């Protein structure tokens, strides 16, 4: 098939992107009642987005730390448990896990589960595998001499981890933790498919009402951009606060 023939096949697809779309920024114009109402409706989604992301981050860190500890054990079966969990969870798409938690977990455990907690549970489980690897790498980065020094002081395993190893490892893992929180913020947009009224869900609902998708989704992009820039700056500030002075 010639290049000209190939182009003729894809011409209809290419031309669909050159539609006579009429931009209507009035839909988000803060000087009008309609614009103010729409902007308020969109920005009210910040609450659910931030709440589900923060809770998922906390639970993922706790679960990830618990999963990381077996990887540090000298007992092979414990290390296998860690690898099976991490590789299994990382292999499941977040959206698939979210749908299974929302629809499958209530049936399996005979419990009621609302949109919010289904999102928190699914994101926590999905992120815990990555957190486990972050914790494992940070702890293993601490030199063996630090472990031996703590043991020579007569500290128990948990005291050694709490007082000596983990405070040093935290400096190592803070940047990856910040990256993972940004990842959770972006993945939280998936909870819109199960009905949680987050930023993405509200944007989709407004598109249905106003029929102006490009304006509304552009504003959605800006919302996530501002949110993630704030988180990134906060992480950098924390890094500077806990950094060891070079002199």
From TrEMBL:
Cellular compartments annotated: Cell inner membrane; Cell membrane
Major localization class: membrane
Keywords, ordered alphabetically: Amino-acid transport, Cell membrane, Membrane, Transmembrane, Transmembrane helix, Transport
Topology term for the membrane: Multi-pass membrane protein
ABC transmembrane type-1 domain span: 46-235
Coiled coil regions in record: none
Superkingdom as given in the UniProt entry: Bacteria
Xref: InterPro entries: AA_ABC_transptr_permease_3TM, ArtM/GltK/GlnP/TcyL/YhdX-like, MetI-like, MetI-like_sf
Transmembrane regions: 50-72, 84-103, 216-235
Protein's UniProt keywords contain ATP-binding: no
Gene3D superfamilies: MetI-like
Protein family (similarity comment): Belongs to the binding-protein-dependent transport system permease family. HisMQ subfamily.
Function (record text): Part of the binding-protein-dependent transport system for glutamine; probably responsible for the translocation of the substrate across the membrane.
Name under which the protein is recorded: Amino acid ABC transporter permease
Species the sequence originates in: Vibrio ulleungensis
């Amino acid at each position: 098939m010639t290049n000209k023939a190939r182009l003729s096949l894809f011409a209809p697809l290419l031309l669909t992107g050159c539609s006579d779309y009429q931009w209507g920024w009035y839909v988000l114009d803060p000087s009008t009642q309609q614009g103010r109402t729409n902007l308020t409706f969109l920005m009210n989604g910040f609450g659910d987005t931030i709440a589900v992301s923060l809770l998922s981050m906390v639970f993922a860190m706790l679960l990830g730390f618990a999963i990381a500890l077996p990887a540090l054990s000298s007992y092979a079966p414990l290390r296998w448990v860690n690898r099976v969990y991490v590789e299994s969870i990382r292999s499941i798409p977040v959206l698939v896990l979210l749908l299974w938690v929302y629809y499958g977990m209530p049936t399996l455990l005979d419990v009621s589960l609302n949109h919010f907690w289904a999102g928190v549970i699914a994101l926590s489980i999905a992120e815990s595998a990555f957190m486990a690897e972050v914790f494992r790498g940070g702890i293993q980065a601490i030199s063996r001499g630090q472990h031996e020094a703590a043991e020579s002081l007569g500290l128990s395993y948990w005291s050694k981890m709490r007082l000596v190893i983990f405070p040093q490892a935290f400096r190592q893992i803070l940047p990856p933790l910040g990256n993972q929180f940004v990842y959770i913020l972006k993945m939280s947009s998936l909870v819109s498919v199960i009905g949680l009224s987050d930023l993405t869900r509200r944007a989709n609902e407004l598109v249905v009402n106003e029929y102006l998708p490009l304006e509304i989704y552009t504003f959605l992009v800006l919302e996530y951009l501002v949110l993630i820039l704030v988180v990134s700056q906060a992480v950098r500030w924390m890094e500077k606060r806990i950094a060891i002075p070079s002199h």
